[in-house]
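Weekly sync notes, structure subgroup
Attendees: PM, AL, DS (notes)

Item 1: joint prediction request from the bench team. They want all two components modeled as one assembly rather than separately. Inputs as received:
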Amino acid sequence: MAYIAMTTGFVLILIGLFGALTNRNILRMIVAFTVANTGVNLVMVAVGYMHGRTAPILDEAVPVAEAVARIIDPVPQALVLTAIVIGVGVTALMLAYVYKLYETKRTLDISAFKDLKW
Amino acid sequence: MIRRLFVILLLLGLGAIFAGLVGGYTPNDALNLSARYYAEHTAQDIGAANIVTAIIVTFRGLDTLGEVTVLFLTAAIVGLVLSHGHREGEGSGRELPPAGELLTTGTQLLVPLILLLGVYVFVNGHLTPGGGFQGGAILASAILLLLLTDPLRRISHGLIATIESTAGLVFVGIGVLGIFFAGGFLDNRILPIGSLGALFSAGAIPIVYSFIGLKVGAEFSSMLANLSETEDL
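Output from the run, pasted for the record:
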């Protein structure tokens, strides 16, 4: 199970990078980056997964005394929660910059923006 | 064409590295040291049923403060980038087609329920799989629905800024109270820990996480409002 999730995550990263490197349209590049971001999150959650264990929430199913033997690793989940929120922020920032880029050149084609190319 | 070839070669290389990582990965049989510490000490030290919440709000609360700051900066930069040269008044003046019966009625029905769900999710963050960030995102989705129905609707930036700055100040203020009345900055034991699993338990965690929820909801809403106020080009 952890292998399936991890492989899917790595494949998503590759798909996202492929999309970001081959597409010329900036909006499509942003979507591709979001796909890669999801892949990274999936890999991180998969690392914390342990077979036969349950979510790190203490209740009737997971008494405090047995918690160490019954729960999966909570640290990657906390990290991924942070990563998802920051990912949303980065996406919003990219969209705002794309709006300004479109305003200056009236195109979304990345090859039209050569001002910093050397 | 040659460019595409380079891309594929690069991805093949990366894929080989990833395959090596997956191939060499062996799942853990037991929790590692830090996870073990969190599993053993959350119930008696923090009193939160959700260990992930205990890590985010208390054990690594400083990280969360940084994260909220990053989010605030993002919202501020989005506002700065998009507001530059922005004309006041009604957008481009173009007539928008009406939103349609389904979306209008659906919004009227769903927006209060979505807001209620968001508040429920962040108030119960220490008991259930939820919390301030998830609840804040749910709150902002209600704003998104409102903006979809009427793209010309103007959300009050003053209200958003007031909610956001108040929530941020309360968050830091509670953290500072922890220095004087408990073990250190952002310590949740300034209030009684209570019994595990009750709504009023885990010290200051429900309060802190509720204000994080309001702050995150306000920040996402301000990003949405700024993006919706851009003019058609």
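Discussion: The radius of gyration of chain B is 23 Å.
Action: AL to compare against the crosslinking data before next sync.
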